[in-house]
Specification:
The strands form 3 sheets. Strands 7, 8, 10, 11 and 12 form a 5-stranded antiparallel beta sheet that branches. Strands 1-2-3-4 form a 4-stranded antiparallel beta sheet, with no helix packed on it. 22% of the residues lie in helices and 32% in strands. The longest helix has 17 residues. By secondary structure, it is an alpha+beta fold. Helix 1 crosses helix 3.
């Protein structure tokens, strides 16, 4: 709580003081009841598991992680850019692998060099009431590609910020990777006229590159069978 010339700001107990354009306001501090979803619990458990793993490494392994962390920021491992400790890097790399369903590593992996993400666009077809979601690729993937999805939304929405991992990109056939089963298992079949957003990211030994986004509208009755 700050007090300057009779003006208060900040929190004190269960109250919050704010100097608003209407004058001094004191209100009850809001309480956020955060729900622990299965995904949050799994992520928290992974962090705890790989934090404990740090103590079971050999000295040589820990030294390797510490040396790698000196030249690594959170941004390089998919974070914000702050410097890392060796244990933090180990946890981040292995949590990334676990989220994608890949096995953990104990030895520090070499920083990855990524080529262009081969995913070009989302292709949605509707035939006899059956919706199929496919990702078109311009070349075979050279790394694991994790696929994230968002719940079907209004066709008028052009940007989404909330995504969940739905799995690894299935092997493409004739340049198309069918992600229907992955998406439906997580969000259900998208209704006609709704927009679907998909985000992909390449993973090599726990290192990740930038997200690549694509979206398409589910065709409605009377539309062409392919969108976009």
């Amino acid at each position: 709580m700050k007090i300057q010339k009779g003006i208060q700001s900040g929190t004190l107990g269960t109250t919050v003081s704010v100097n608003s354009k209407y004058g001094q306001v004191v209100r009850t501090r809001p309480r956020h009841n955060r729900q622990d979803t299965e995904a949050r619990l799994r992520s928290r458990n992974n962090c705890a598991t790989y934090s404990r793993l740090w103590g079971r490494l050999t000295d040589q392994q820990r030294e390797g992680w510490m040396a790698l962390a000196l030249h690594t920021s959170c941004r390089s491992a998919g974070g914000t850019g702050a410097p890392l400790h060796g244990c933090q890097l180990l946890v981040k790399i292995n949590c990334t692998l676990a989220a994608a369903g890949l096995p953990p590593v104990k030895n520090p992996p070499r920083p990855a060099k990524f080529g262009p993400n081969p995913v070009q666009r989302l292709r949605i077809t509707s035939r006899q009431g059956k919706v199929k979601l496919e990702l078109a690729l311009d070349h075979p993937p050279a790394a694991h590609i994790v696929v994230l999805g968002s719940r079907p939304c209004s066709a008028g929405i052009s940007v989404r910020s909330s995504y969940s991992i739905i799995g690894l990109l299935p092997a493409p056939k004739r340049g198309l990777s069918d992600i229907t089963a992955l998406y439906v298992a997580r969000f259900g079949e998208p209704p006609p006229g709704r927009r679907v957003f998909i985000r992909t990211r390449q993973i090599i030994n726990g290192w990740v590159d930038a997200f690549k986004d694509t979206h398409a509208r589910v065709p409605e009755a009377g539309d062409a069978t392919v969108s976009p």
